[in-house]
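Issue: copy button drops trailing tokens. Both records pasted manually instead:
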Amino acid sequence: MGVLVLDIITTAAILFTVATGLMIVLGVMKLINFAHGAFLTLGGYSAYVMTVVGWSPWMAIPFAATVGLFFGLLIEYFIVRPLYSRPLDAILATWGLGIIIGQLITIGFGREVQFVEPPVSGAIEFLDQSYSIYRLIFVGVAAAIGAGLTVLLYFTRFGLNARAVIMNENLARGLGIDSTRVRLATFGLGAALASMAGALITPLISVDPNLGLPWLVNSFMLVLASGVSIPGLAIVSVLLGGAQVLVSTYISPIIGGLTIVVLAAVILRIRPQGIGR
């Protein structure tokens, strides 16, 4: 039972970490970034590159975040920005970008499954059973990301400007807020968070060109069910992630893989605005 509780906690932390990049882009820009999965994959291959060149696995985290930030800023400036007045086209553009990035990764690295060296290996003893230290690290990572985003959005000038853009972009512009710069910074931050998450989850699984696709679907449903809020995302990560662990453990891993999507759809049917609002 103790290990099951740890599985629920760490799974929730992993889901929260993976979904935050998508949440901040949707929350500020009102844009569903379907390239989120591709940025996760990009982060996974960034970690793989660190393994290949023999650098410390810890370097994979800042390296992946930097790669995601760089490409996120480029994509926002050259591709997404001209489409803000055409929201549907912007969404389709991010979907197409995800496909293109996936194909470029396939060309560069092949379709083979690759493995990444974890920054921390080993296990700790908990109730006479062993548990992965690396999975436990995700609890601290999720808490740090949640706290960092809360401080950024509620205690900095950027956060004040971002919240003004969320509430009324035209009024924010009238007050002298550069909404274009806010959008650029937001998309870059979302891409950096996604790539960093990709590097973090890679040691738990493996790397392949389709790494980000299943995480994209779950992240999308979690963000919608959360009401696009940090506390809401934490709550649904625990509830839906816990349900996934329980179903996978006691019923079937295959059915468990569908749990988040099904329960998120139920939540949205009952409470369309999400549980965080």
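Record 2 (pasted manually too):
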Amino acid sequence: MTSLPHITVLMGTRNGAAHLRQQLASLAAQEHTRWSLWISDDGSTDATWAHIRTFAKDQPNPIVLLRGPQQGMSAN
């Protein structure tokens, strides 16, 4: 049997706390389990960081949270 490739998921956030839990739960529920998540947050002032940290505590996969440039979606 061929092993599945590792997938890196890239996510940009900014004040996305209202929808972030559902997005992260969807990622965790996927059949493909060989993944890591890189999140670049572009200056959130809501609970985005708290949601990501809570999610990361329970995940066996790497979660990398970066501070974005705070110059808008394209730069992030």
